[in-house]
Amino acid sequence: MLSKHTLLGIVFFLCIHLLKAQSYEGLLTDNYSGVHGIISNPANIADSRLKLDINLIGVSAFFGNNYLGLNMSDAFKDFGKTFDEAKTTPKTNNFLASNLDILGPSVMFNLTEKSAVAVYSRARLFLNVDDINGASIDKEGGFNEDEDFFINEGDVSGEINLWTEIGASYARVLVDHGEHFLKGGATLKYLSGIHHAYIRGTDVTVDYDATSRDVVTTGLLTYGNDASGSEGDGLSDFFTFGKSTGIGGDLGFVYEWRPNHQDYKLTDANGNTYLNKGVNKYKLKIGASITDIGKINNKKGEEETYDLNKTQSIDDFDGMDLEDGLSNNFDTTGPTHESADTGLPTALHANVDWNVVSKFYLNLNSDVNLQGKHKINSNHIRSEVALTPRLETAWISVYSPISLMQQVGFRWGLGLRAGPFYLGSGSALTALFGNSSKSLDAYAGIKVPIYQNKLKDRDGDGLKDDVDECPDTPGPIENNGCPWKDTDGDGILDKDDNCPNEVGPKENNGCPWKDTDGDGVLDKDDDCPNTPGLKEFNGCPDTDGDGIIDQNDRCPNQPGSKENKGCPDTDGDTLVDIDDDCPTVAGPVSNKGCPEVTIAVQKQLNAYAKTILFDTGKATIKPESVAVMVDIIQILNEYPNAKFTVEGHTDSVGSNESNQKLSEARANSVRDFLINEGIAGARLTAIGYGEEKPIASNTTNLGRKQNRRVEINLIK
């Protein structure tokens, strides 16, 4: 009979391939995860809620497949039946996977307000089967040598890798513009390969004939490991450190939207501003990172490619393991090579974290493979999307990741962080309550977290409680955190009340309204607060009683109409008296309300003036001319704004000089008479022309008489 261990070992190892599940699922979404944050994104440790975090030990283990579906609730009844009665789903591309992630002593701490570093130690193991034909493992107890069987594996591949990491991470705040916050980080890690083995098969088949007991195999198989030729059980090679080394790295960025960033800035009594580093400040956080960039350069390992096209007896495989079965029964296709380098499971991680309300968050995370699936000895992840609601505080967080993993399907887990302890699973609830769970995982650990100081402001007034004189009642910083008083109870705070001890309205800055002029109308309603007035005129006076308040009345002491702005128009010439030079006589506006001197009036004046008689050779007006002067005065009074020249003229008898003086004297004599009788002096100008302007011949008595005259002419 073909050895069950030999045949299943060959089939199993032909199909080893990596499936990487996210380690510590749920915990890595926590803002208080501390040093664990570098696993998914090194930028996480900048502006951390912890100022120091020391991880003592943490272990995360995972198993997943698409062949075996378990009902873990049966394990509490009969553990043995859990696997015996498990539902199987044979496919041509079945896979099995296992992952062990041990985070050893590690520390994270803040360098400055904007930067942080972490140093960590880590061991990682990946073991899995991929693209295996489910019919190959759907046999209970091996294969019966008395029956024919055929196995068509096709193209298969697989790896097992175990290595350690010593890493250092640095992260810092790149942008802090209040509402917009960005940080970045990088990890550099030294890799030490401990053990690796891999295979890559092409068109592999196994055909067994029970009658002849011959087994016909086909295809090519490449097999490499780091323990070939070891003696004994190989443990000495398995735990040889430093034989294979490499350098790896991670790079990440995190953006935070902080619409209420001002709420997280507190002030002390001196006005100094402090950022409350002990609390989360974002409404939305978006992270992106690339992890596990690099490879391990394997040394002293061997790789052989075997030609499986051969017919031989099944007895040739009896009692042999995989390596012996290949080397003793098949020929190689070429020389032995050094084993291939181990490629790290390079992946892209995108993360969105939404602070729904208070301490409740909703996280959406996706992991995308960036490593070629069929590249030999290269680890890679299967894409996964997880939605994780969580309740988060400094000392305790509870989270429940709900995820879809490529080919594994739906997973639902539960996790808890309580002070220094953390444990959880990304599939615990699916395994317990589902009837066909295809993955199992769990993690647990212990750490020493030192949290950032959380500045307290119980009343939310922006002033720290330790300097707030009223820590339970909001108040302004300028009043030491206490609310302003309202001594007079008028609804206006004392700081804004100009009369804090007297009740008054807001529109008067807290002071009662005054009545400055004592007219019974309050200043707020008084259009003339400094002048007593009438209530019907909003406190303004109307001295002349014409219905127009004094401040709008051009003639406040004379009644007038509204059309004339409170002024009278006595003569009705449309020009109010105050602007009318002749208020009692109607006249055109162009002449300032006075009548205009006509040609007829001008002739009348000169007719009168020519009859004025003087003593011979003198400027004295004879008494019989007084009546004429009265007539002239009457005419001048009818045109009060008109101005006139009083002109004196003589005949040619006598010298020019004496005639000039006589004419000037007689003109001034008439002007003085008119002024003495009430005619304004500004209206009259006296001029003497002597004998220069005769109106008749000086050769006759009649002519000389006509030339001796006085004229009164309008100045135009």
TrEMBL record:
UniProt keyword annotation of Membrane present: yes
Keyword rRNA processing: no
Segments forming domain OmpA-like: 601-716
Annotated compartments: Cell outer membrane
GO MF terms, alphabetically ordered: calcium ion binding
Disordered: annotated segments: 457-571
Domain of life: Bacteria
GO annotation, biological process: cell adhesion
A GO cellular component entry from the record: cell outer membrane
Pfam families: DUF5723, OmpA, TSP_3
Principal location: membrane
Bias type Basic and acidic residues, positions: 485-498, 514-523
Family matches, as SUPFAM superfamilies: OmpA-like, TSP type-3 repeat
Entry-linked InterPro entries: Bact_OuterMem_StrucFunc (IPR050330), DUF5723 (IPR043781), OMP_bac (IPR006664), OmpA-like (IPR006665), OmpA-like_sf (IPR036737), Thrombospondin_3-like_rpt (IPR003367), TSP_type-3_rpt (IPR028974)
Descriptive protein name: OmpA family protein
Organism: Flagellimonas pelagia
